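$ fold --in a.seq
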Amino acid sequence: MRERPNVVILILDTIHHIDDRLDYFQRVQGALKPGGRIAVIDWHKRPTPEGPGLEHRLARERVVEEMTAAGYRLVEESDILPHQYFLVFRVR
């Protein structure tokens, strides 16, 4: 049996486009082997000098809530980006 590579999935500025995120991220778990990660970079839900309108943004807290409900845990967070959050999740 072939071993699945350690996958890192990057979702960049598009998480609000994913319909039924809970179901989607539960299904994605099948593509991840233990230790696989999902990184989410997206715009803070507040006015910023650049980026999409507020109606196209998800609050950081909502993303963490939804990912936790889908079976992931937040394992890393960076504040390197001034207008976006950068979150890394692993399967619980």
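$ fold --in b.seq
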Amino acid sequence: MPREPVLKPVPISSLRPTQITVGFREVEIRRRMLREGKKMAAPKFYERHMIPVVLGPGEHHYVLDHHHLALALHEEGVKQMFVTVIADLSKVDEGSFWLYLAHKAWLHPYDAKGRRRDHTDIPKRLADMSDDPFRSLAGALRRAGGYAKDTTPFSEFLWADFLRRRVKTSLVRHRFDKALERALTLAKSKDADYLPGWCGAIEDG
């Protein structure tokens, strides 16, 4: 379906997530960038960063991407945000709606331990999402050059899951710099060569 820009801003508090977690450290980085760059006062910023959503049952807007940015804006006191409607599913029933999102890979109901949950476990508000420190580690790893940005859906989740199995949670929570050093080593290894954006060394055959 063609994208349909919504000219009237949507209240950020009304946006509904399509995933259970975000990385709180990543949200804080975006909050700091917003404050330091004073981007919240620039209309062009909103035009370039419209939130992609699906219009679901009850006319609710479900966020497909930029969960970290949307939550950062909310926590910085921004009340409204322009959205781009990717699909209008407001007329379908609840069960068909969630099935469609899952089929399109627009849904990622995994908790902070990487376990798949039911769609009913996805919070109804951005503010109620929980912290997955490995999503923050995956984001920091990409910025540090550990892997390249990729168009694969949920590529950050795949890297977070890879790291979750190899780096201790206590290290990520309490010694993040050390955890990032460990992640950089792991990211260049052959164990990670199946992941999107892998940029480790390739041996000549």
